[in-house]
């Protein structure tokens, strides 16, 4: 099905299945993307034409942080930072899915809007808008939190993308300079369960890399000045780009990029600046994903 065609039921893409859950699959001549049709908003598949899913699939992973069973599933989800139990409110029902007109964005092409249900414990509603670029293996994503409750939140929109292990994630770091400068220009932080001696982590003069080998949980964050994090696996480079907003306050000691790795997957995460989100207000964070075969 062409990226500019809708199925006979009036929804974009074609019906599919992800471990027993209904999906919609959108395709262009350059890539494909698959979203849940009945829960989320979630993206569960992304890849080059005719090739397997690059995103991790973890349909059995779940936990309960006090609001009921949250199913991780894999793929891409929208959370908020700083992380609290309110991040993992179950989202398996209540999704509204609709096509987006091609003229709604400078990047013309097929699009879909995924609008989640209002979360009872928080009053927050999540939306992810997905648009395929008809001219390249790229998609544009807009992630939005709308506060439809009565609480005031200080939060950062935090899109998280789970990818299969077996590759290497890379973030570019600012270059060292020859002259004496009195203020720091590089920020790298670890989570309490991580260690600087973990052999999956390498910090060089111009880059930070994490090799995605299965193992104990590991997480590192940094402040990216380029707004870009990549993952190279089996000759395919996945790149996530966003506005780094380096002058704005960020959560987690100032991170706008975080990388997490464990036994099942590696996560590439971007973070928007912290905002005070009152009732009736909303905040959005954009990403652009690109795929490219290298080597």
Give a structural overview.
By secondary structure, the protein is an all-beta fold. It has a single domain, classed as Distorted Sandwich (Beta-galactosidase, Chain A, domain 5), CATH 2.70.98.10. The protein is 0% helix and 47% strand. The protein contains no helices and 23 strands. The protein has strands at residues 14-18, 21-27, 32-36, 43-47, 57-64, 69-74, 76-81, 96-100, 111-115, 124-132, 138-147, 153-163, 168-172, 188-190, 201-203, 207-211, 218-222, 228-233, 236-241, 257-261, 266-270, 275-277, 282-293. The strands form 4 sheets. Strands 8-9-10-11-23-19-18-13-16-15 form a 10-stranded antiparallel sheet, with no helix packed on it. Strands 7, 12, 14, 17, 20, 21 and 22 form a 7-stranded antiparallel sheet that branches. A 4-stranded antiparallel sheet has the order 1-2-3-4, with no helix packed on it. The two termini are 30 Å apart. 38% of the residues are buried. Residues 1-6 and 103-108 have low confidence and may be disordered.
Keywords:
single chain, 295 residues, Beta-galactosidase, Chain A, domain 5, ten-stranded antiparallel beta sheet, seven-stranded antiparallel beta sheet, globular
What is the fold named in CATH at topology level? Beta-galactosidase, Chain A, domain 5
> How are the strands of the biggest sheet laid out side by side?
8-9-10-11-23-19-18-13-16-15
Low-confidence stretches: 1-6, 103-108
- Portion of residues within helices: under 10%
